[in-house]
Every structure is written in structure tokens, then in C-alpha cells.
Fold this sequence. Notes:
Elements: H1 2-20, E1 23-24, E2 36-43, H2 48-58, E3 66-67, E4 74-76, H3 87-96, H4 99-107, H5 119-128, H6 131-139, H7 146-150, E5 157-171, E6 177-190, H8 194-204, H9 212-224, E7 229-241, H10 248-266, E8 273-278, E9 282-284, E10 297-305, E11 311-321, E12 338-342, E13 354-357, E14 363-372, E15 376-389, E16 395-404, E17 412-424, E18 429-442, E19 448-464, E20 467-474, E21 477-480, E22 482-485, E23 488-496
Parallel strand pairs: 2-3, 2-4, 2-5
Antiparallel strand pairs: 1-11, 5-6, 6-7, 8-9, 8-13, 9-12, 10-11, 10-13, 11-12, 14-15, 14-23, 15-16, 16-17, 17-18, 18-19, 19-20, 19-21, 20-23, 21-22
Helix pairs in contact: 2-10
Amino acid sequence: MKSRIIVLFFLTFSVLYANAQAKIGDLVSSKYDRNSVSYILVKRGGDGDKYVNQFQRTMNISQKYDVNKIPTTELYFQLNRPSVISQESISKALNSKLVGKEIISFIYNRSSDGTFNDKVITSRGKYNAKDQDIKIAQASKVRDLSLEWGEPLVNSSYIVVLDFTKFHTTKDKKGKITYNADATAHAYKLIADRDVLDNFYEKAWADESSSEEEKKAAMKAFDELSFSLEHVATVSVSGSSSGDGASYLNACHSAYNSAVFQLENAIPAWQTASAFIAKHPLRAKIGTKEGVTNGQLFRTYSYKEDKNGNLVSVKRGYVRATKVANNTGVSTGNTTPSKFYQISGFANVQEGYTLKQKNDIKLGVALTCGYSPYLGVRVGIDMDYLMHISTWGASTYMLVNVGMLPSIDASLTDEMVGFAYGIPISRFFEIAPYVTGGIYSLLSDEPAVVGYGAEPGVRFSVRFYPFSLMVGAGYPVAIIGDLYASLRFYGGVKWTF
């Protein structure tokens, strides 16, 4: 039996190691440019639209994205919720509204007389410029390269059509109401490559210096041009709102945040990327301007040549952002970098490696089993949410644990909340003192609280993100008619989502 366990351990280790060293076909670039976006809300008529209108007035787009303010902000469909509107119908509606042309008109600041200018482009180019861009411009003594920096960003313009497909409430056994909003988000990219822009400049460009005849000709030519949209992703999400102040509006915001989260994982261009400039601690020049937040997950890559001499990327594990730099504003050439902590990978991440955004929700879910002399066996689902991670990797968790105690009563459950402070021994090992407290109740048609309890303890984790093995010891003190207090030992497996 012992030999089988050892073999199983080494097989698991080998698989994890192979995964950590896996090559990927596409070369992952550390180059990242800002994207611009416009959101269009679907209206269907009926009561649901009032919640959509409330959301539309209060929605907030992350400063990670430039916003294209176009005339089309709504699409109308005579189709009752929760019927599904096809992606083909959405595409047809966007084309009929000439949304691609609206984006070009906004970015090039089109006036009523048909003239354009580069004010938006140069402003965005200057804001997008990295330290290296600034240093190159200074070294070459070029006064202003903002137009050259900004023009490629036109080809990074997106439309997201957000359709709230269903509004409904649910009620638990205690009568607590939860408001729910289901939504589908369709993302489209404007096709604005070099050929498209050159054709636009050649046929439809006019500015303040143009003659009246040239302006009229350019206006006519622009009206005849078409700018295509390419569908890049569709995600379906659900949002909810419960507790004090619960509402459909809050459920809409929850669904919207989930949609952005999923779209960022589905669209590579939306994923913030950079190169590490230093280690001890790991640092990279991204921050608030790119929407980086504490605890945000990034995958890391190195480069090597394959047997054919082609450069390929090699996965090197994961890091989380720790101290996020406020880099909002135009680069001066000396931007303060953000700091990161490596949470997985057998090789140390090195200066020059690439990091690329890979969103997770920072929620660990563990299946555990434990035993104490007085409370007997406990089988549970123990969850932890990463609230904060320090520069040296210490993590603060909020805990929510739910378990069953069949040794006392088959319907007896515990519901505990608390906090843990994870102290890293290395990126693979963490020891976390914790304390939880809560209630004991009996499962029935009318759940009844039968006791109260608290548990201080400590857990030890072996981590191979997103998988972890954990063991722990606690000292539960429970009042369930009588007072129960004894050591509890447990173990389990955890997956972080």
C-alpha cells in the first residue's frame, strides 16, 4: 500500500511538472496596447427594460479601456424574454446601423461638414505610449510621435452588445429573496487594418485645410464606404443580488462584471501583458491604467527554440499582483512598476519573462473530511476567498465552511464563517492560522438552529495552482445542548477557480 502511494505521488508530480514546462504553439507576446470599446444594450419592450435602463445609466467601464461614444447605444428587438436572440440577428442589426462607420467617425472626430482630425488618435497614442516608446522618441529627438503611436489603436476597437435575457427571483427556505439577471454578451471587433485605413484616407479624408469641393467629395465617398465588424466572442452569464438593498439593478451589475471577466479570458487582445523588468520582488510596468488589481492572476512564459529553430513560448507558472502601481496618466519614461508574487511553477520566474492576464475569481473550494473525539466525523465543503496578498506572498482569506456531522445526527450541519492568514513557506507550501464561528442546525422543512460554535486552528497546504492538498488541525468548541470541545484533524483537496 505504501509503495502504491509513493508511485501515485511521483506520477502526479511528473504530470504537474510536465504541465508547468508545456510548450504552446503560438508565441505569447509581451506587447500590449489599449483597446477601445462601446457598449450597446438590447431593449425588448416590457417590464425588463426598466432594469436595463437603470443599468445603462449607472454602468461603469474600466479605465483599462478607451470608450468610443457612438450614437447607437441601443438595439430594439420585438422578442419577449427569455427568448434567445441569435448572433446572426445581432450582426445584422449592427450592420444596418452602420456601427463600424460610427466608430471611425468618433475616433477621427468627424464634423458635420465631413472633415476629420487626429485629436482623439494623438491623445490615445500619447496615453498608450510605454516608457520605452518615450525613451526612443527622446533619443531620436523626435518632438511628437503620438500620431504614430495612436493610429494602430484604431484596429483595436470593439463593440459589446449586452442582452439581458431573463429577470427572475428565487427564495430560500428562510424566505430570503435573491434577484437574478441572466445576460448574453456578443463582442465584435472593427476591421481597421492598414489596407482599410489607407482606403479611407485616400477616398474619404478631408480636414480643415480642404476646399469646399474636396469636403463635399470626401463626404460623399465616406457615405459610400463600409467598415466591417468581426464577431470575436459570445459569453452567457448570470448575476445575482441578495441581502439588504438587493435589486435587479445590482443583479445587472453583477452579470455585467461576469461578462467582462469572461470576455477578457476569451479575447487575447483584452488580456494585459508585459515583461518582467526585475525580480526579488518580481516587477513589471503595468498598473492601474491597465486595470490591474491586488491578487489578479497572470500566467508567465519564457521563450526557447524548438527543434526546427522556431521560437516558442513555454509556460512557467502563475503570479499574482501584489502592490499595484498607480500609473494612470501619460508615461514620463520612468513609470513605477507593480510588484508580483509567484504562486506556482517549478522554475523561478526570471527578468524578461512575459506575464499575461488570466482571470480567476480567487475562490478556493475544498472537499474535506475530519474527525474529533466528541463531534465525530465531519464531511464538508470549505471555501476560501483571497482578499489580499502582500508583496512577500502572505494571503488574507475569508472563509465560508459548510459541513455535516453524521456521527451525532445525520441531519446535523455546521455553517461557519471566518478568516485565515496564509504564511508562505515557499510558493508550494503555505501554513495558515484561522478562526471560524457560526451555527449548528438540523436539516428539515423548517431548519432549526440547535447550537453555536467556534474553531481556532491551523491548516497546511501543498499548492500546485489551481490544485492544492491540505491538512489541518483545529479545536472546535460547540454548544449543542452540552458543551463539546476537542482537537479535530482533517484533510482534503482544493481547487481554486
